[in-house]
Amino acid sequence: MLTRCPSCQTTFRVTTEQLKVRLGKVRCGSCQQVFNALEALVDALPDAAANNLPAESNGTASSRAIEQSGAERGFHSLLSKEDVPDTVPVESAPQIDAASIDALKDYLGTLGAAADEHELSPSPVKVIISRRWPWVAASFLAIVVLFLQIATYYRVEFAVLVPEARPSLDLLCEISGCTVDLPSKIELLSIEASDLHPIDPAIPTHLEFTATLRNRAPFAQSWPHMELTLTDTADSAVARRVIPPADYLPKGRDVASGFSNQSDSVISFHLTTDGLPASGYRVYLFYP
């Protein structure tokens, strides 16, 4: 089929395969103008050009005439480095009927509609990104739950390091059913002095134990329990007793307020040996 450049009026021969490359768009090989070859189709060459063609017995232009006009160059897609397929002017070409041209236009129109439909379809990348949001939300929720579990487990340490967080920790324990107790670092407690002696020399089985406890921690701690072991002359245990804070602290002392930081406290309590051969004792502090 033939098409004519609307800019320089040069006539070209084109094929169906060449027009399918970019929906009919080509570039003029003479003036480099881009145009739609389908819209510029012509039925025949001008009379002057047609009269100069040597005739063949089958009524078509001879291959020699086509070779004299220059060999046909290949077409390139718009997706390549070239903008559009090149066209080379020819002096003659076989004609094509109107039915074939209409069929080609319908085919190219179908390709254009399919391309538009593809451009309007949603991007698969956006769909993938939108599906990530549930995972992001679930990960964030898991991090929050993990932080709450850590805060619950180390609630005492958090209360010491960040005293301002104590109300929040108390609220968290109300929900989870725990309590924010005072720290219990037994290695920071010590017995500075102790003594076990009869209350009345006439009654040697009634004894009084006194001691001075020290809290070396920079924070208040829970009051410890005390274990007192009575020993005989061979340093063997003959009796053992565990004394809770409520038994050795002075009357009216609030146990819940804790052992103040960097302070000493004098404690005492009474006990009866009931005739046991006790001649010495051992005592140490611990948290149950």
Helical amount:
25-40%
Q: Shape from CA axes? A: rod-shaped
Number of domains: 3
Order of helices and strands: EEHEEEHHEHHHHEEEEHEE
**What structural class should be given to the helix and strand makeup?**
alpha+beta
Classify the beta-strand content into a percent band: 25-35%
Low-confidence stretches: 48-84, 88-95, 115-125
How many strands in all?
Answer: 12
Mean model confidence by pLDDT: 74
Quote the distance from N terminus to C terminus. 103 Å
Biggest sheet statistics = 3 strands, antiparallel
Strand neighbour order, sheet with most strands:
2-1-5
Radius of gyration based on Cα positions: 52 Å
Tell me the number of helical segments per DSSP (H or I, 4 or more residues long): 8
